[in-house]
């Protein structure tokens, strides 16, 4: 009887030990991250609207940040420089879109530190209709269909170009000289952070100059015409950037017949020259060492 009881106790003890071993070895399954909503996926990208000579660009990124740029056409239909930009964070919950403004140069549109809660009335791949707090409906159009990518370890490189200045083509010898001046930033598609940097091919500059100098005044005098020029520039320069060019941001456009104005434009948008090192470190004073 005692022997039987001992065997039963040993079996019970063994079962408890085995249960503890398997129980400790089993990992609890981590909850999977909730996928982004279809509305969130549709919102990510570049949007624009144009009204009363005011052109507004809005870029919503996967990581929850946004940027908005404001540009205005002049009264003579010539394009003027952008008026400023704003940045912040955004979130969407159902049909409610919330913008928080972190920094702003256009306080009359995006007040710094303000939060804007908008209602999404309609959205698809090409447009989104938003109801603002004043009940006004505003339609934003997509600037370009984009592919969705993850944001962890992803970069959105921006390559600034040195100022582009060309003497646009004339229809007759009696036409006065007009100079098209452009300050551009090249925005590339998202690439892995550890990928080799993409550099602008030297021939890209020549290709841009050749194309822009073939234009006439009527090709560039209004914002609508310049949007067409912008798209053609994207198609032209994309092969020189490994097919990674996403968009071209026009920071400043000027059309002038004054060389003085052109020189001011170049000085304003040219990068500063590198500083020369002096003193003991390297003993470089800007003069070549005589041998």
TrEMBL record:
Highest taxon above the source species: Bacteria
Bilayer topology: Single-pass membrane protein
Pfam family, one: FliL
Residue ranges of the region described as Disordered: 268-291
One GO biological process term: chemotaxis
Alphabetized InterPro entries for the sequence: FliL
Keywords noted in UniProt: Cell membrane, Chemotaxis, Flagellar rotation, Membrane, Transmembrane, Transmembrane helix
Bias (Acidic residues) ranges: 278-291
Gene Ontology terms: cellular component: bacterial-type flagellum basal body; plasma membrane
Localisation: Cell membrane
The protein's role, per its UniProt record: Controls the rotational direction of flagella during chemotaxis.
Sequence similarity: Belongs to the FliL family.
The protein's name: Flagellar protein FliL
